[in-house]
Fold each of these.
Amino acid sequence: MISRRVLLKRLSSVPVVGGLFGTGLISSASTPVAAVGRDYFKELGVRTFINAAGTYTSMTGCLMPPEVTDAIKYATGDYVNLDDLQDKVGERIAELLDCEYATVTAGCASAITLGTAGVLTRLDQSKVEQIPDLTGLKSEVILQKSHEIGYAHAIRNCGVDLVFVETRKDLDKAISNKTAMMWFLNTANSKGQIQHEEWLEVAQKNEIPTFNDCAADVPPVENLYKYTKMGYDLVGFSGGKGLRGPQSAGLLLGKKDLVKAARLHAPPRGNTVGRGMKVNKEEILGMLVALELYLNRDHEAEWKLWESQIQMIHDAAASVKGVTAEIHVPEVANHVPSLNITWDQSIVKLTGGEARTKLSQGHPSIQTVGGKDSLGITTWMMQPGQERIVARRVQEVLHQATT
Ligand SMILES: *Cc1c(COP(=O)(O)O)cnc(C)c1O
């Protein structure tokens, strides 16, 4: 064995990167350059920001609590068998959420694709390898027109056609021996003519598996149990939204045979539609720990915190002449205290877009959402204390635009 001192000495005489790197002999982590304390984002010229917007993939979703990153770091230190880990974590999640079975997926979209694939093939290995070729398989998934959403592409990845219905009559007519699954978008429940229970009732009568996409639907915590208990065969959640787990993780919950079938499409298996949906051991463990933490959280206290934070920003914004600030809570999905700020543009001479740009280009950078004439803010994805900065900056930006 070559001593570290000698290695370092030799290294310092290696003229170019690439000499020893990439040979497997040494990794960049053991170079003399200290890995701790580096400001990687700054080195890369990537700007960080305060997230006053919410759980957006483009904004990298959520921040994981330290217990989750500790679990991730823990998992980096040893090899395990990927299927063993998924089995054990799946059993533990099912126990925690009191459902038949569960697995960690690469996000809710991945849960949808894997779930659909599992429904199509069940546990038949030859069929697994055939997807997205549907020869001899069912080929249609039914959903309501009011539930149409880009994420439904995750269903089509399996080669199936989406069949849209509006009325109960449409639904009854659309069901055939080609129907593989009936898909439901939880957040659109009240928008559709057919609601949770009726959708389920029709599906069960026709022995068609159901999927409920609940991606962004915690809080409330009850939703983690509600729809599997209601009877939905498969339910999907994002790991990197309200659960504050890894951004590239999610949960597929439901009937054991269907979740097991979905697993046949996931890594480590390669000849599958889901091979590109790998979840590593770090994220699998991180997802479990994030879920445990979420379940043990004081949800009431957290809600009160969000309320007081949003009130502070509300008060700051509303103190500006011509500005109206309204606190509201979306009924389903991103169900948290939220602020909608509008203003009389003859007094505050700014469009919504201009206000958002000023906030994102200021110091510190703050990301918000909103429409042409409005500014939308939530505090649940902020670090504690950042609400003060946001309140001050929102007030400043709006005030500066008044005449
Ligand atoms: C975010 C979202 C998804 C995608 O979830 P990922 O975890 O990002 O894969 C799917 N459906 C709905 C309704 C969502 O809000």
Amino acid sequence: MDGVPCLRVSRCHAQQYRRCLQSQGALDLSLCVVKDSEGTVLLPILPSCLSELDLQSLRTLLASDSACEIVWIQTPLQSKKEKRISRGNKLEKILQELLESHGEKWTEELKGDLPHSFQRHGDLVLLGDNCFALPVWKKMDNQLWTAVARGLEAKRLAKMSRISRDGFRSPEVTVLLGEHSWVKHVDNGISYEFDVMKCMFSAGNITEKLRVAAFDCSGETVVDLYAGIGYFSLPYLVHAKASHVHACEWNPDAVEALQKNLEANRVSDRCTIHQGDNRQLQLCDVADRVNLGLIPSSEDGWPVACRLLKKTTGGILHVHQNVTSPLHNTAADDATHRVSGKKADREVWQAWADDTSNHIASLLRNITGALWITNIRHIEHVKSYAPHVHHVVLDLECRPS
Ligand SMILES: C[S@@+](CC[C@H](N)C(=O)[O-])C[C@H]1O[C@@H](n2cnc3c(N)ncnc32)[C@H](O)[C@@H]1O
Ligand SMILES: *C1O[C@H](CO)[C@@H](O)[C@H](O)[C@H]1NC(C)=O
Ligand SMILES: *[C@@H]1O[C@H](CO)[C@@H](O)[C@H](O)[C@H]1NC(C)=O
Ligand SMILES: *[C@@H]1O[C@H](CO)[C@@H](O)[C@H](O)[C@H]1NC(C)=O
């Protein structure tokens, strides 16, 4: 019989059976557990263990009188981990063949020159800059990129060097295979399109995007000082229901993508794009909320953010910062050290937040000539950059007193 043997069990006993099979070494961990339409669960069994499987005693063991039978399925699902491994192997196999067809030998050095990580944007794979550096690849010409695309199951290929320091944060990207470099991402019901050659997309900030999406900003005017392609402006408009968003951005390519994305998500009527340097922005006294999403620091944007807040009612600033904790003497990597390391990090974030809060209160006072109270509402941890560098967001409530 073809296919993969599975134990079909009722959903309520699936976990018990799974554990039991796993402890007997009979569960095929390379395949996914599948829920079928009849309310039962299929647990993939290693064919070699099938003959030793004693269904009767399994049933007795789990005191279950519900369904428990062997079925065969034709199209099992590979587990995610297994998929990654087989993709990696596929690439390796294809490249090995290509090299050998050019009379070259497959070596460990070549293996080490394969991409270890990459970003997938739909059918485009964006490779990092630390791969395919060895001269031998040059001999393969375009054949190489067609083979890599096949190995990674992509249609288009591009390669990244580092994010440039031109202030636009544009990645330096070269297209290796394919006609164009526009890609589309859909996350949390919002679609983002952009040109990977000209703008960056930070999938890493997903937790912050989800947090923003959960805000209730109905009736509010929000200013997004570093809008990019709309990473935060869009969740403010689509999910948080902001009445209006002013989106500032100085990179014309990002502005082009932002415009498209506002239209694609049908929110352009509630957004004004201010193209140019936000420090020159003429707008003031309009905002209930200002988003300052720039790392390593958004400090250049603090004065304009203060001018933007409504003078009579104030509002909330979301201040992003890359905060670096001093290195402690952690020769040992034991659990106690790690815990105290975390605590030390939090203290550093708190200290940074206190400083920022005082600094902004002072700015507000200088700008408006009135006294303001600033209040730390929350410090959100977005991401860690080892070692001891953390991207955090401070929610700072600012009210005239
Ligand atoms: C980090 S990126 C996009 C940030 C986005 N919030 C994210 O999650 O990735 C910051 C954006 O701010 C823009 N930018 C930086 N400084 C600016 C300034 N002074 N005025 C206007 N835009 C600026 C850059 O062009 C870039 O698109
Ligand atoms: C979001 O994270 C990326 C790295 O994943 C970073 O480069 C980018 O600047 C971050 N955006 C903000 C708001 O700081
Ligand atoms: C965060 O800041 C540290 C130190 O200032 C820097 O080395 C690192 O590159 C920064 N990371 C990002 C993504 O800005
Ligand atoms: C506010 O003005 C005072 C007096 O001119 C100055 O000392 C202080 O540095 C200013 N605050 C900020 C944050 O610029």
